[in-house]
Amino acid sequence: MRLRERCMVFSMAVMIAIATGGCGTEEQESTTASSGFDPNSVQTRSKTLTIENLINKHFYYEPDQQKREDYFYKGLIYGLGDKFATYYSPEEFAKITEEDEGEYVGIGATVSKNMDNGSVYVVEPIPGSPAEEVGLLPDDVFVEIDGVELTTDMELEDVVKMIRGQANITAHLKMYREGEDDFLEFDVPRRKIQEVTVRSEMLENGFGYIKVSEFIMTTDEQFKEAVDSLMAQGAKGLIFDLRNNPGGITNSAINMVDYLVEDDTVPSGGDPNKPGLLLELRDKNSNILDKSYTKDGHSVDLPMAILMNGNSASSSEIVIGCLRDYGKVKLVGEKSYGKGIVQQTFPLSDGSAVKMTIAKYFLPAGSNIHETGIEPDVEVELTKEQKRTLSKMPHNEDPQLAAAIKALGGDPLPGSENLTTETTESSSQKTTEETKTTEEPKTTEETKTTETPKTTESTEE
Q1: Of 253, 283, 332, 344, which shows the fewest CB atoms inside 10 Å?
Q2: pLDDT tens readout for residues 124-152
Q3: Residue 208: strand pairing partners
Q4: Distances (CA, A) of 61 to 58, 132, 350
Q5: Computed over its alpha carbons, how large is the radius of gyration of the chain?
Q6: Number of Cβ atoms within 10 Å of the Cβ of 296
């Protein structure tokens, strides 16, 4: 399973959530707070010793010392109040590093934790995975894993550990599915998952369709190959499906946009002194930490559209926002998640790591979409059942895809001519600045399909 959410954005070299300055160092590890809480103060040391003595004298059970150590560090990060911050033990960080390289052992599903009620649920099974083969669906909630009942206070990382395991060892899952009278039970074989994050095909009307499920280190190269292949087949236009994409490695997202946008152009409303700007990171003092620009000398001149929904988050929103600002796409579907902050993961000398929010990112025209999201140009809402079955929905039954084709002036797909699509044309392509009155949608950390959006932390297994 993979922690996502990511704009939850790890850079290739040091697994940072976005390409910013250097990674964690020994100097950073030894630094203590200069003000406020000081873990080295006499008062803190005395209180810690008192608690240790009470545990040693009164605690009935035999404590797991490794778990105590891990949660000591997790507590330091949890106390920041940053829902995207965490401490990774050496084992956890090694797994995340492995997964971002595109291979891991699991059941093959994107999952998330609902930060409002503590439940862990399926975002979307990976096509061809064990999770899809046994019939798991989006929004299925984990109740028990191998006979162990989940509690709402469990960390997502701990649930990930329970689901993961050795290849060819079956995971027995008890799941809650809305509308069912009783819990559902599944035996899901764990196996090595080779992550294919980009899938493409030529539609019957001559438009190229590219589905991007998440952003890992190899996503940008997979994407470029898909674009080249469809163009070689004579695609009339390109439709990028970023629905239910929780994000991931931002470098991949930036490289994808760069491949489509002409170098050194200025987006509508952008700073003429910053031609080709794709992304700008600013810290809490508004200092610019990093900038990304178009630079690859490649662009694509075809009609394009993006399919999006409330679970399109982080790196997905970077792709959506950049291509919107450069006037390259029609946005079709539902408002995106709204995660305009970035996390950096600092590796530590013992193989562990800490991750925390370090900056906001700003799109080419200067907007930040955190907690506001991006509005589609053509709004098309799916029914609850359509959302649940989106991953298996035939193209000619997909109202959002039909609306995207119509927006690009294409012919309807065979069998979709009578498909009912309720669409609303947006009066502006700009990011909405209205304050959300609903709960935040489920998405990545690093993602979900529901009619009532919820705050979530996401991952993949």
Answers
A1: 283
A2: 888 889 999 999 999 999 999 999 999 99
A3: 202, 238
A4: 9, 40, 28
A5: 22
A6: 12
